[in-house]
Amino acid sequence: MAPSLVSPQCYYISKRNNEASVSEEAWEKAYQIYNDFVQTLPKAKGWTTQNVIKYQGFWLTPTSALKGVLLVQHHFKPRPTDIFLATSPKCGTTWLKALMFATMNRSSYDFSSHPLLKNGPHDCVTFIEVNMCQDYPIMNLELLLSPRLLAAHIPYDLLPVTKTTFGCKLVYIFRDPKDVLVSTWHFMNKLRPKKLQPLSLGEAYELFCEGISHYAPFWDHVLEYWKASLESPDKILFLKYEDMKREPSVHLRRLAEFVGQPFSFEEEEKGVVQKILRLCSFENLRNLKVNKTGVHRVTDEIVVNNCDFFRKGQTGDWENYLTDEMKQRLDFITEQKLKNSGLTLGSSNRNL
């Protein structure tokens, strides 16, 4: 049975109330239980850490992702008005965060002085599992006004069981796994500690094909959300990265409508859709000073340069890295994993 960790937010509040000694004792006890629990789980070679840990069918980093998932499962309280952006890593998360933040807050900010001009998308929309891990959270989730816009890499079945009961809405984005592999390989090597040798493309490829990467197996992550979207299309919107790149204005309108904030006739006349797309375009975000020189603090130990979130943002970049043999094997795995699900690579499925 997974341990129920003490919430970092509770620890922080108790420290402010001069009750740190009691909470600190509970905190240390919880982490001893946690560390003992981690030792019982299967291990494999990690991408940014020595090892990843398999928990309830998915591979997670023990020092951040696993701890975050457990804290979310035991302490996060969803609201019926919450909007979740769920993704497997390197599937268009940064772009989706920017688009949704700009769309949902379009009446609050002027485009000439927008928060995205001075803050990276990951500082505007927090990952719940990351936020829960911080002793001093960037934003206290309980204090955020509704509707809260939140993000998660967490697999669907590992989210709190109350998510459907509470009526939250969720947007998921799927990307060609060949591009996911290449993008993940580049990104994770930038985060990999110097004491660990960089992962070669061949090593990364084998791990990915075996289903070993962050929040993986990739196909299981995708299929859980895909099947949930078929069961609850009014609550879960399933998108493809390639379709969004091909017709961004069409899918931005769908996103706005899905979260209950469709663009009005007046907004269409004023070109608000195009303004959001320009603001959130890969080229514009990448060239902003904050995304050239700024950093995003994931945890006290993990700090990411904002520029590392903006490599190419293209579709089909895998062709520059994978051999025909690698491509064929990965496509075969994908075909077998998605078989009979109704989900395929390429354009438009039932709800696209």
Automatic annotation (TrEMBL):
It holds the Pfam family Sulfotransfer_1. GO terms for molecular function: sulfotransferase activity. Keywords: Transferase. It is an enzyme of class 2 (transferase). Its EC number is 2.8.2.-. InterPro entries: P-loop_NTPase (IPR027417), Sulfotransferase_dom (IPR000863). Residues 80-342 form the Sulfotransferase domain. The keyword Transferase applies. Belongs to the sulfotransferase 1 family. This is Sulfotransferase. It comes from Escallonia rubra.
